[in-house]
């Protein structure tokens, strides 16, 4: 029972007792008053009637009878009797006690006693007899009954108004307690809200102020933990000078893509930038100037490849920078390389006589399976061959793979026409891969889309970049979502399904409204649905992301972020978003048993996720020893080829 209800109950009982006691005492006082009035009324009438009888002739019985009838017929008396001095009954008039307007139970309960009073009748100095009179209690009962009814109505109305007023007052006074409950519950979920409006009641105001101080302190501590974790992540994966990935993190990231059973099938492009002659520049201009040049180079490379959101930028050595773009064909590789060369060649150092021949960019692309070491080796060989040429230069080389599907060589016109036909006919085939908890019990099924091109099923890595390029992301996500919803309506099990949404689709206003309407129209299906977006969506959406997620989860679905840990400032999403799942990117998972830096990061992330009741999962679990180590670090589940391969839905 809540404090409000308990106080309301106690005070209601107290008011009821007070009102009931007052009402009963009022009725008792009224009864005593009527009791006295009946006796006084009978005594006064006996005295006056005795005087009247005394004036009559001794044997004039008719006159005495007339006097008695005149008084008795008024109806206020139950009994009038005159007995002479010899004991003879001269006159007797009597009414039965019958009350039609008063309930019998009330008569029995009140029990008004109308006493029989007597008065001597004297003629001169001689006694003439005794007159007996008893008042009729009917009028007293009737008056007392009406008074009781009026009192019940009056006191009942007053009691009801008092109870209602008391409950309203208690709700107003104790309203801060409800807010305190909500605030405490929010703190448990690491949402450190503070009450801006303080209660007027001094005691409650002090409690709310103390709660606000506690929430502020906890928020500071949680923020410090997130900053510390983010700083440790940066130190383990970021280059200290330029802020881009260091060599180890870059190699892990591209190895994660190329070793993936599905994404690795479509290869990618590796760009390598070599800046020569920095030793002389450093001696001439100082270390700070050289550092600023390297930072500017890293910034321009990162800015240039922004249109390719899946691109990974890293620094492999002091003057060597690399960029890896998954599923990148020859045409894209040329555009990327040319854009990077132009962006850096305009730097003052490369325009000077000292640096005009110091910039070389090589990019190799392979449209098929390859290893990270092989691609780095090919790019390094191409880069060294460029350095033997005079002047700054760039070159792109394709490493042929005859096993790769020919649709990757389609022109943009062929791609656009084929994709539009597939989407128009909703020719999307769905596969799923099950995510398991640490006990290898199914958690949900993550859905993947496949398109049939040239008679073969192509995975998302082959066509999603083209979908994004031609702004078909909204149409593609709609087709996938509708296909999944139809399947879920037919599936009467309690299986949860996870579907990925493009960041650009989620941020499209028309698509978001359509998505909300669809989710609200199918509440039973929505309750088994998990919406998932890549971590870069958080950066793209900015301050809008918490609002978008909140509106989606209000429909009954759940929300997840995958490839977590790649984007800087990603830890803030733990605090701001209403998340149910977080998936650690596979680059942190592969080889985790031998990577102390990643182990510390994942262990800290697991503690923070647990404090927010967020389920932490791992992507790309390929080895048994990695799965066991993840369990030790506090990860609650995962998915990958070690746990289960994709299947047709």
UniProtKB/TrEMBL annotation:
The chain crosses the membrane at residues 7-28, 149-170. Residues 171-223 form the HAMP domain. Keywords: Membrane, Transmembrane, Transmembrane helix. Residues 412-649 form the EAL domain. Residues 266-399 form the GGDEF domain. InterPro entries: Cyclic-di-GMP_PDE-like (IPR050706), EAL_dom (IPR001633), EAL_sf (IPR035919), GGDEF_dom (IPR000160), HAMP_dom (IPR003660), LapD_MoxY_N (IPR032244), LapD_MoxY_peri_C (IPR042461), Nucleotide_cyclase (IPR029787). It holds the Pfam family EAL. This is EAL domain-containing protein. It comes from Endozoicomonas gorgoniicola.
């Amino acid at each position: 029972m809540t404090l409000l209800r308990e106080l309301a109950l106690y005070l209601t009982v107290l008011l009821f007792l007070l009102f009931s006691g007052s009402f009963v005492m009022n009725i008792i006082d009224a009864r005593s008053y009527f009791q006295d009035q009946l006796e006084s009324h009978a005594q006064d009438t006996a005295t006056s009637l005795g005087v009247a009888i005394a004036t009559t002739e001794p044997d004039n019985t008719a006159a005495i009878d007339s006097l008695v009838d005149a008084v008795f017929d008024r109806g206020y008396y139950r009994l009038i009797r005159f007995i002479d001095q010899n004991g003879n009954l001269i006159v007797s008039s009597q009414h039965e006690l019958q009350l039609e307007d008063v309930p019998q139970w009330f008569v029995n309960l009140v029990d008004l006693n109308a006493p029989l009073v007597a008065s001597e009748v004297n003629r001169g100095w001689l006694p003439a007899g005794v007159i007996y009179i008893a008042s009729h209690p009917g009028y007293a009962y009737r008056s007392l009954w009406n008074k009781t009814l009026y009192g019940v109505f009056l006191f009942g109305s007053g009691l009801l108004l008092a109870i209602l007023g008391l409950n309203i007052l208690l709700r107003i006074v104790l309203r801060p307690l409800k807010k305190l409950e909500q605030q405490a519950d929010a703190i448990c979920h690491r949402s450190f809200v503070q009450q801006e409006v303080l209660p007027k009641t001094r005691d409650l105001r002090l409690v709310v102020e103390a709660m606000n101080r506690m929430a502020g302190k906890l928020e500071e501590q949680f923020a410090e933990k997130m900053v510390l974790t983010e700083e440790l992540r940066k130190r383990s994966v970021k280059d200290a000078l330029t802020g881009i990935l260091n060599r180890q993190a870059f190699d892990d990231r591209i190895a994660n893509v190329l070793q993936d059973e599905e994404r690795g099938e479509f290869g990618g492009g590796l760009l390598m930038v070599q800046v020569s002659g920095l030793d002389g520049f450093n001696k001439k201009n100082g270390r700070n100037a050289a550092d600023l040049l390297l930072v500017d180079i890293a910034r321009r490379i990162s800015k240039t490849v922004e249109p390719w959101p899946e691109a990974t930028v890293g620094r492999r050595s002091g003057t060597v920078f690399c960029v890896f773009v998954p599923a990148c064909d020859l045409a894209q590789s040329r555009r990327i390389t040319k854009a990077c060369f132009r962006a850096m060649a305009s730097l003052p150092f490369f325009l000077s006589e000292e640096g005009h021949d110091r910039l070389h960019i090589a990019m190799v692309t392979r449209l098929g399976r390859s290893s990270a070491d092989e691609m780095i080796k090919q790019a390094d060989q191409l880069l060294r061959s460029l350095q033997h040429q005079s002047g700054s230069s760039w070159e792109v080389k394709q490493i042929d793979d005859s096993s790769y599907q020919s649709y990757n060589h389609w022109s943009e016109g062929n791609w656009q026409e084929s994709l539009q036909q597939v989407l128009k006919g909703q020719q999307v085939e769905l596969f799923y891969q099950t995510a398991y908890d640490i006990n290898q019990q199914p958690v949900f099924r993550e859905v993947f889309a496949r398109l049939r091109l040239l008679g073969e099923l192509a995975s998302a890595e082959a066509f999603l970049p083209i979908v994004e390029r031609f702004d078909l992301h909204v149409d593609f996500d709609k087709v996938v979502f509708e296909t999944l919803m139809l399947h879920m309506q037919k599936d009467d099990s309690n299986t949860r399904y996870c579907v990925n949404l493009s960041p650009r689709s989620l941020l499209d206003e028309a698509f978001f409204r359509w998505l909300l309407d669809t989710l609200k129209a199918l509440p039973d299906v929505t309750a088994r649905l998990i919406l998932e977006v890549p971590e870069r969506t958080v950066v793209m959406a900015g301050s809008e992301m918490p609002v978008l997620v909140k509106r989606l989860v209000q429909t009954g679905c759940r929300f997840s972020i995958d490839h977590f840990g790649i984007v800087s400032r990603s830890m803030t999403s733990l605090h701001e978003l209403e998340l149910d799942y977080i998936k650690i990117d596979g680059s942190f998972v592969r080889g985790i048993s031998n990577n102390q830096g990643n182990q510390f990061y994942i262990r800290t992330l697991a503690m923070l996720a647990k404090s927010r009741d967020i389920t932490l999962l791992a992507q790309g679990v390929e080895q048994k020893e990695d799965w066991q180590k993840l369990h030790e670090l506090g990860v609650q589940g995962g998915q990958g080829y070690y746990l289960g391969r994709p299947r047709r839905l």
